[in-house]
């Protein structure tokens, strides 16, 4: 109502103190909701990754990154300063897609998510892997607004098309 009053150039029904208190309450409520979502995502991710430990198709690399080899390429291995060309699909743990590449482009291996970088340094060109990326190797506490929540473990289908 206060916002509508302002749009109509009418005096506010609320005092400055009431507006400040409402704003602070709103921010606190949002912060609590974000912390609860963060905890929920951490628990779901840990449960998912723990479930992969018993799966013979999945292996683990540095810092808890899980991967499954779908296709083994015969090309070269990227190095830390390589340019790479890749395609990907990003999914939430429930399988819903949140991102995908529309057209493969060359980019620096240093410019990708930390979890991707760990995997890519172990993938030969032509390989296609499924990655389960814990939050500290993906978007972390911040998430990716409107697409990825805080502390979310993510699934990526990652195909390394080329290395130079």
What does this structure look like?
With 164 residues, the protein is α+β, with helices and mostly antiparallel strands. It has a single domain, classed as Chitinase A, domain 3 (Roll), CATH 3.10.50.40. It has three helices and seven strands; from the N terminus they run H-H-E-E-E-E-E-H-E-E. Strands 1, 2, 3, 4, 5, 6 and 7 form a seven-stranded antiparallel beta sheet that branches. Strand 3 (83-91) and strand 4 form a beta hairpin. The chain is elongated.
What topology does this entry show?
Elements: H1 2-7, H2 16-52, E1 58-60, E2 66-71, E3 83-91, E4 97-100, E5 106-108, H3 114-120, E6 128-133, E7 154-163
Antiparallel strand pairs: 1-2, 2-6, 3-4, 3-5, 3-7, 6-7
Q: Keywords for this structure?
A:
164 residues, single chain, Chitinase A, domain 3, alpha+beta, 3 helices
């Amino acid at each position: 109502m206060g916002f509508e009053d302002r749009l109509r150039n009418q005096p506010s029904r609320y005092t400055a103190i009431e507006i400040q208190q409402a704003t602070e309450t709103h921010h606190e409520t949002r912060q609590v909701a974000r912390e609860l979502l963060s905890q929920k995502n951490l628990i779901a991710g840990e449960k998912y990754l723990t479930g992969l430990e018993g799966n013979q198709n999945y292996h683990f690399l540095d810092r808890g990154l899980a991967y499954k080899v779908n296709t083994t390429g015969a090309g070269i291995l990227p190095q830390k300063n390589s340019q790479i060309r890749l395609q990907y699909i990003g999914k939430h743990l429930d399988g819903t897609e949140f991102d995908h590449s529309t057209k493969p482009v060359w980019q620096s291996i240093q410019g990708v998510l930390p979890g991707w970088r760990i995997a890519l340094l172990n993938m030969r060109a032509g390989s296609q892997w499924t990655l389960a990326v814990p939050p500290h190797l993906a978007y972390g506490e911040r998430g990716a607004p409107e697409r990825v929540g805080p502390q979310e473990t993510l699934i990526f289908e990652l195909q390394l098309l080329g290395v130079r």
